[in-house]
């Protein structure tokens, strides 16, 4: 599925013939296209409960699954791995693949995909959940900032967390953060500092720290059954 975006307005500084600077205003419409492949999981009772709307969990993978010419690699971690092992979830799960090995998630395109899935399926818009690990965890923080009214709850696993994001996140959205204390790829302090910042600002934040665990804290995090029970209890209070 391909998504197009953005329109930009910019100004250009040029040197005039007489040696004087000129500030010229202009406009250029640019188009960026993303080809997002994805898995979409439906709960076992989705077809039978035709009058019911279901929650949806958006899962964003880490860098190891990005830019790989196989969607099957998503089954190596997180909820897609658990689904492949036979686990049943009470909500839809959308798991897109970042097509770029060395680039960050294009969060604008991800939300375009998410909105398309929501509009074409029986999804409860007040119960959209967000989670991501590593690079996908960083993207989850970014999505919470860019779309503060969209998600009912967010769980971030070992993601980079710029502290200025804290002031932009919806205070009504519960957050659960997981991180291994011995993480050498994304320091534990990324999550610890963000959690401390959010707590100091009165946010509802849970923090699970794993002593002796490195970067792959997502193994323990996504095996936590309480996480999914916590998700389904959340609903936007708008």
UniProtKB/TrEMBL annotation:
A single Pfam family it belongs to is DLH
The Dienelactone hydrolase domain is annotated at 114-215
Q: Which InterPro entries match?
A: AB_hydrolase_fold, Dienelactn_hydro, Plant_Biomass_Hydrol_Est
Q: Which UniProt keywords apply?
A: Hydrolase, Signal
At the top level of its lineage, which domain of life is listed? Bacteria
GO function terms (MF aspect): hydrolase activity
Keyword Signal assigned to the entry: answer is: yes
Gene3D superfamilies referenced in this protein's UniProt entry, alphabetically: alpha/beta hydrolase
Protein name per its UniProtKB record: Alpha/beta hydrolase family protein
Species this chain originates from: Kriegella aquimaris
